[in-house]
Every structure is written in structure tokens, then in C-alpha cells.
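Protein in question quoted for reference:
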Amino acid sequence: MNFFPRTRLLIHLLGGGLLLSAGAADYQLRSPDGRLAIYISDSAGLRYQVECYGHLILQPSQLGLEFQDGTRLGPAARVTKTTTVRHDRTWENPLGQRRLVRDHWRELRLSLVETNGLRTRQFDLMVRAYDDGVAFRYDLPEASGLGHFVLTRELTEFHFAEDYRCWAGEESVCAENHYPELTLSTLPAMNAAGHRYESVLPLLVAAPGCYVAVAESDLLDWAGLFVTGTGSPVVAATLAPRSDHNGLVVSAVPCQSPWRVLLIGRQPGDLISSDLIVNLATPSRLSDTSWVKPGVSAWDAWWTGVNPSLPQYTGVGARGDTRSHEEYVDFAAEMGWPYQLVDWYWYRDDPTKWLPHVDLPAVFAHARDKQVRLFIWMHSKDLKKVGFEKAFATVAGWGAAGVKVDFMNSDSQETVEWYAAALAAAAQYHLMVDFHGAYKPTGLARTYPNFITQEGVLGNEYNKLPGAKCTPLHTITLPFTRGLLGPMDFTPGGFLNRAPADFKVTYPAEVMGSRARQMAMTIVYLSPLLVLCDSPANYRGQPGIEFFRGLPTVWDDTVVPEAEVGRSLVIARRSGDRWYLAAMNGEAAATLQVPLSFLGRGHWSLRSFADNPGGTNYAAIVESRKNVDRHATVSVTLLPAGGFAAVLSRGAVKPGE
């Protein structure tokens, strides 16, 4: 049933897409192309609903906030004024999936009043409509009279029209989780401990005529958002509690919540190519970002393995010793990669003092000689203990390019604020930051461009752990879930490739799926700092290694020719005058027909790295070259858990190449 009867609306057309009621209780905002609509009503409490391509996808859904002093905003709110804004500009994103990003939206701001007993509060609801989604946020002005406040509950809900299929994140303190397929009514409400279940965003929903992903953006001074099931198509918003147990958010007006985002596209590939999360984020707070340099990094910590209980870490090949790091620096230099990551176990307790097993000054000197720069790992608790100033000044003085900060494992308000403080402090020393043990992306990498990548993903390292969690289904589902939100330090590139049935946990570490699949991940999974996981011993002289030489990590354009959640994906990304094409599938073999219509005019050469479709050796690569143009179609045959990677360059293949 349509909650907002159209007969009540007194509609005025403003600018070909913005519809307002002049005197009635219902307000409508349409996307610039007119295909999406969000309706706001105050006739039975503050509520919204969403239509997509003519289909009602969200029924009337509650909006509002509750505070420790008993104030509730939303349940009895009344609109007193509306303001409209249109915006259509382009901004440059040198660290994303397309360099020129169009930021095109229409906005409706609703001024509201709510009377609780003898007290009247004022607040605003900001609503935006884009061609690829809708978003809203709560704005608490000084006129609200809230002063210093403690938020205890967010009333926001997402009441889907039917019990649709969905892919929901499991509970996790650091977004290292699967996204199993469910229906909305089976999304858990309680966990095994009897507490409220908190599903990690995004929530991907297959609705009639479109796909919808629930997410958030511009999380700066608030608690991170999760969703919780209710046993129905209604999904409730929940927030991470503060570590001091004083509600969810402690702040003062004026204050704004993050954007609550509904990414919307006709096909799942439309969501993958969307820039909505970064468009909604606060623009860069850094005046100079010329020192922020994306690129590929070598990394010895994933491959070799060591017993961390040993008091000393010594010996040839030990994890993180001097010889090991210098070996990886040498390989990075051979491949033209700009970075090597000095990971765990180089210090104990104080990240300004190194342990005897790694001569850190010698490693830095060796890296300088090879024109390779180092990222330095540190535990967040040790960084908090030592302090930003001392830790960052010290490693910057050594010549570090950046830091990898680990084990925050929270998105409480305190942690969210700490992220921003860490990034601002690191920027003072021209240090890039890679957060691990991290919450999901919320556009913060736009606000602080030195936030070069982050984890918050169940990545390749899980191939070293019991349970076989990094499955083909998981890795093909990631682009449609976690990958929608922003950079993802999955650490791809494993070259000990095994069929899923043959996989086992070993040292050196194996990976599930074909080698071409691991190569494809470097294109599919966006990460401006691309950390490749395997060792020089496993890379040198191996089929496919040349694909990693000169590999871009940021892109000028992105298109998605083929996408089916949990089954297959084809993505093409452009860097300069070259296109990089990648394909992945799930557990079933597949043959995909890929049109090359994204190419420019003229002749192109395609150099491909493919599975051997008739073989059982998952490390095998079939490399070939051929001439193509924008009218051609490439047939891609994938093994179960297979992959495909290719480079397209202008000009025809010369004889003998």
C-alpha cells in the first residue's frame, strides 16, 4: 500500500525533478534523471519511502533520534519550512576509480519542530537525490537547544516493500567477515550471546528492477552504522556503542549525522561503478597532497611465517629480519614497485625503537639505494601510548613513506574521532596511512587523501588460518558488497594457486583459485596502495609475473560490462591510454562474452593472461596477444574459481610479438 496518497499532494514542478507540496504534509524529491524518488511525510511521525524506476522499494520507514535526556526527534515532528538546492559540478579524484567525478544532485532541506511535553526542539533533515542513489542526514543546529547531548538511539529504519533477497555482512569488530545470501526476514536480530545482532554494512538488496545497497558516508563525529534484522522486511539501524558506555554519541550542537545512503542501480555493476560514497564525503582537508603517491608494495610478512612467541626473530628467511626486508626491497626495485612494507615484529611496545633482529637503519639505507620507500607497521595501542607526535616524527625522520596502523577493531565514536586525528597528524609529516583492523570505508579517504588504503575485509591472509574462509564465493561476492564502499587492502597476488578441493593451510601459503584470478583481483579490488602478498621466490620467472610490472593502482575511468552477484564479474579500468580488463567467477566454470565497446577508435593490442581451460594446474597461465578494436568481443573461459587479466594498448600487435 502506498503510504503517501498522491491525491493529497499539491505538486509544483521545480527544475525538472524537484517536487514539493506547498501546503500538504508530503514532500517528494527526484533524482536529476527523474528515475529515483524519495518521499518524506510528517503526517504520522517523520517517515520516508523510496521509488526506483517506477517500483516502490522502501515502504514508509521511520526516521528519528533519541537522547539521554528523554528528547525524541522524529516521532512527532512537523515540517515548518523547506529549502531546495541543485548542484552539478565535477571534481578531480586522483586516488579513485575515475579521475573526473561528476557530483550531480538535488537537495531538499526540511526544517522541523518537535514538541516533547513543554519543550519544543528544532532540527533539520537533509535529503539528496542522485542518479545512482539517495541519501539523508540529521542536522542538529544551535536552535535545537540540545546544547551538549548524549545520543542513545537512532530510530532510522529501512522498511523494504517485500522480503527480498539480500547479502548481509556478518558481525565483526573490524569488518573482516563474509556476506552470505539471505532474505531480509532472516537477517538475525540477536546473536548467540543474546545481544542485538549488528550486521556490517553494506547490506545489498535485490529489489524489483534494481539493486540497492545500504551504506553510510561522511562518518566524522558519530558512531559507525550497522543494521539489525527484525524477522520481517524491516531492517533497523544500530550504532556502535561508546567504549566508556556513555550512550552512542557524545557531542554538542551544531552537529550533523553521517549520510544514510541507498546506492541504487538497475544492475549490480551500476553499484560497482558508482562514486556516491565519495561524492557525499567532506572534501579534502589537506591543502597539499602532492606527496601522496599511490603504487605497488612488496610485503614479506604474509608469506614466510614465524612463531611470534619467540623472544627473538633471527635467521635467514625469518619474518621481518634484515635480510628478508632487503630481499623484498631488491625485488620491489626489480619490478619497479615504489614500496616495501615493514610489518609486524620489528619492535616490541615502542614503535620508535627497533629490535636487534632487524637493523632498521640498514634497511632504510638499502631501500634508499634501491629507490624504494618503506611503510612501517605499528599497533594502534602502541601508537596511542607513544603519541602521534613522537611516533610519526620518528618514522618520518627515518624516511618512511607511511605507516600501517593495526587493531583498532571498533567504530565507536571515540575510534572514529581517533582515525581523523591520526590522519591529520600523519599528514603533518607527509605520511600516508594504511589502517588495518579497520571499520568499513565511509568516504574518509576523500577527506584525508593520505588515507591511502585500508583493510576492513576478510582478505588473503585468511588463507593462512584454519577454516578455509577465503572461498571462491566470498572473493566473487566482495566486489558487490565490501568493495562498493572504498579502497580494500585485500593483499592479492598469491602464486601458490590451488583448486578449492585441493587447498590446504601450509607455509608457504596457498590460495584458492587460479593464478589468473589472483591477477584479476589487482584490478577488481580497488586499492591505491596495492600490497602484493607473495615472495620473490614464488614470483621470479613465473608465468604472469610481467602483468605486475608497471601495474597502475588508481584509475582514470571504470566500466563494468558484466556483473552477477556471487557468480561473475568483468571490469575494465583505464590508466592513461591503456585499459586493464579483469574477470572473475564463482564456484562454477564460466564462459563470458566481453564486448570491447569501451575502447576508443582505432586499433588496439590485447595481451591476455588466462586460465588453461582444459587443465587442472591452477598455477598455469595461457598468455596470448591479438589485435582488437571497439567492435570486437573477447571470449573469456574461466575455470571454477578462475580468472582473467589483460592489458589493452593502442596500436596493432607487431609480427613476432
Observations:
- The CA atoms of residues 185 and 232 lie 4 Å apart.
